[in-house]
């Protein structure tokens, strides 16, 4: 048989057969005087076995070990390991589908997918085209992924989401875009922002936060200078309040 014939017989492509030759999985057959490969029934039997093993989910390296016979692992051991791996994948797929179902049931947001609790918080927020508000939503989605948030935190923050004062603060922050960090509007705005955060929000915030060195500096660097100074002052003020509560 020629390569096209044996490939059609086994249900493969000639390209796949040539690949098996290149990686040493299938030995090169004898060639005819005209240079064409000449495959035997034995080659077809081996190629059929390769196909069956790969369809079971074995990688080509595992197939090579099985074909090696006594030099490799017993087929039974390989298949039991494969079965255990498939069971693990089934569990993971089930968990992912459950997570997907929760996301589909939650309100959809522009920064999704996020956790259902955060999706509800974002949906409860004011409708605004504020660039600072958009950046805050992105930061919340980042913390949600990094494990720095939590349903308790989001639940408490929902009480602030509908506060008209929050939207006004976003507008003031937007107005600082392009201003220097020593702008006289920075200090009073930071004080009002910190005062707006109730103690119950601080009590719900995880003490450890995102376990990434330099996260705070990177967060501030995402803001223009004056806005970054406002956020830095707010972070300092809230940290001092948290420490005071801990005493």
Walkthrough of the structure:
This protein has helices at residues 3-10, 14-22, 41-55, 60-67, 75-105, 116-124, 131-146, 151-161, 164-175, 186-196, 199-204, 215-221, 225-246. With 247 residues, the chain is an all-alpha fold. The chain has three domains: 3-72, Multidrug-efflux Transporter Regulator, Chain: A, Domain 2; 73-105; 108-246, no CATH class. It is elongated. It starts with a helix and ends with a helix.
List keywords for this structure.
DNA-bd_dom_put_sf, MerR-type_HTH_dom, single chain, DNA-binding, 247 residues, coiled coil, Multidrug-efflux Transporter Regulator, Chain: A, Domain 2, mainly alpha, 67% helix
Q: What would you call the shape?
A: elongated
Structural class label: mainly alpha
User: DSSP helix count?
Assistant: 13
Q: Mean pLDDT, nearest integer?
A: 82
Q: What share of the residues lie within helices?
A: 55-70%
N-end to C-end Cα span: 85 Å
- Rg, alpha carbons: 31 Å
Could you name the ranges where pLDDT drops below 50 across 5 or more consecutive residues? Answer: none
SSE succession? HHHHHHHHHHHHH
Provide the domain count.
Answer: 3
* Oligomeric form: single chain
Main beta sheet, described? Answer: none
Strand-residue proportion? under 5%
Pfam family, one: MerR_1
Coiled coil: 79-106
InterPro entries: DNA-bd_dom_put_sf, MerR-type_HTH_dom, MerR_fam
Domain HTH merR-type: 1-69
């Amino acid at each position: 048989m020629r390569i096209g014939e044996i490939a059609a017989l086994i249900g493969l492509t000639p390209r796949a057969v040539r690949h098996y030759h290149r990686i040493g999985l299938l030995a090169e057959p004898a060639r005819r005087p005209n240079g064409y490969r000449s495959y035997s029934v034995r080659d077809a039997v081996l190629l059929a076995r390769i196909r069956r093993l790969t369809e079971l989910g074995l990688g080509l390296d595992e197939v090579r070990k099985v074909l090696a016979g006594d030099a490799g692992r017993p087929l039974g051991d390989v298949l039991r390991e494969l079965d255990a791996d498939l069971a693990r994948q089934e569990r993971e797929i089930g968990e992912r589908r459950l997570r997907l179902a929760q996301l589909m049931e939650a309100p959809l947001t522009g920064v999704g997918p996020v956790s259902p609790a955060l999706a509800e918080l974002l949906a409860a927020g004011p409708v605004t085209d504020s660039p600072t508000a958009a950046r805050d939503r992105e930061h919340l989605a980042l913390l949600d992924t990094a494990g720095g948030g939590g349903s308790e935190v989001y639940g408490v923050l929902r009480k602030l989401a509908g506060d008209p004062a929050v939207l006004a603060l976003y507008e003031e922050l937007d107005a600082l875009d392009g201003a220097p960090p020593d702008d006289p509007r920075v200090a009073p705005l930071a004080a009002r922002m910190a005062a707006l955060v109730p103690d119950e929000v601080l009590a719900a915030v995880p003490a450890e936060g995102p376990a990434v060195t330099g996260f705070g500096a990177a967060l501030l660097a995402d803001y223009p200078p004056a806005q970054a100074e406002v956020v830095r002052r707010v972070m300092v003020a809230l940290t001092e309040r948290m420490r005071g509560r801990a005493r």
